[in-house]
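Before relying on records like the one below, remember that each one covers exactly one chain. Contacts with other chains, cofactors or solvent are not represented anywhere in the record.
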Amino acid sequence: MTQLQPHSATENWVTEDSGWFESFLVGDRWKHARGATIDEVENQLISKLVMNTAQEHWNEASMKDSPWGKSRIVFGLITGSLTLGLTSQDTAENALAELSLDHIRFKASVFHGDTIYAYTQVLGVEPAERDDAGVVEFKHWGATDDMRIVFECTRRVLIKRRSHWRS
């Protein structure tokens, strides 16, 4: 299983004058400042709202004899959504549009009480058809507090250029 290396707290971003198209350089990597613990209410509510009827998400008794043997598994799209949400302050604060979400992988099971942290690497930057923005391609990872990778994806975002939007 792939492991991520922790970054120091001083490398974390929190809202600042960053996140413009010009701010991103290919190869940049960072750990996002916040983490979030997934609780039972989130898993149960969202799984049922989207009609995910897999017993692994709903039925504690059926999980006792399962290969996971721990407890109900968190619905993967909750893990993915949470990971992307944790990245958005740093990667999409100046976004004009989300363009794509690709190469989505659920790498390991997540259980109630697991805390997820997000990591990002800039894979590409390119001009857009419009002068006031550019396209940035990111790779995102979600990892537990013991650095176990549970989610990864690539994402392309249309981001404002500071030169056109900042007064």
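The beta strands are 29-37, 95-106, 115-127, 133-144, 149-160.
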